[in-house]
Fold this sequence. Notes:
This protein has 6 helices and 10 strands; from the N terminus they run E-E-E-H-E-E-H-E-H-E-E-E-H-E-H-H. The chain has a single domain, classed as Spore Coat Polysaccharide Biosynthesis Protein SpsA, Chain A, CATH 3.90.550.10. The protein has 191 residues and is an alpha/beta fold. It is 30% helix and 20% strand. Helix 2 (66-77) packs antiparallel against helix 4 (131-139). A hairpin with a 2-residue loop joins strand 2 (19-20) and strand 3.
Amino acid sequence: MILSGGKSTRMGENKAFIEIEGISIINRIQRVLKELFDEIIIVANQKEQFADLDARIYSDLLPGRGALGGLYTGLFVSSCPYSFCVACDMPFLKQSVIEYLITKIPGYDVIVPRTRDGLQPLHAIYSKNCLGPIRRVIEQGKYKIIDLYPFAKVRIIEEDQFSFLDPMNESFINVNTPQELLLIQKRKYGC
């Protein structure tokens, strides 16, 4: 599932449709996910913006509850027991990293990588078993995905376990500001 419910206030435009190397971030993400999954779900506030994408598109079932509400929606509508969850502003996903996370599912409800920057809850796998705990956490007025973790069977995958698949940690780069976009473009184009 792709979470695209943020307001993009720091960027000033919908981050999902920013182009990197001529391809929108949402299309870059979709290409990787199509290689791995039969079902792609997009949770978005403006569903009409995503109408031309080959995906099932849903509005938040629990509006105004941040990324945790978006995760709840995606898990609720998914036909699968587990879903890979990613933010709409992560242009450099690596299929191999996601496949590696999938191998770590048995016995857990959350499989989340941890890089030197910390946990990566918007590049993680979640079980439908998380639906009840998410509701309880939201009822407590908490809306961060990591607020769910104390109430689920979480497996943290440390960076040294998957770094051979993505030595530069590009999978976890996200684009939040025009300055970050400029840095990415400079790095990619060597400007």
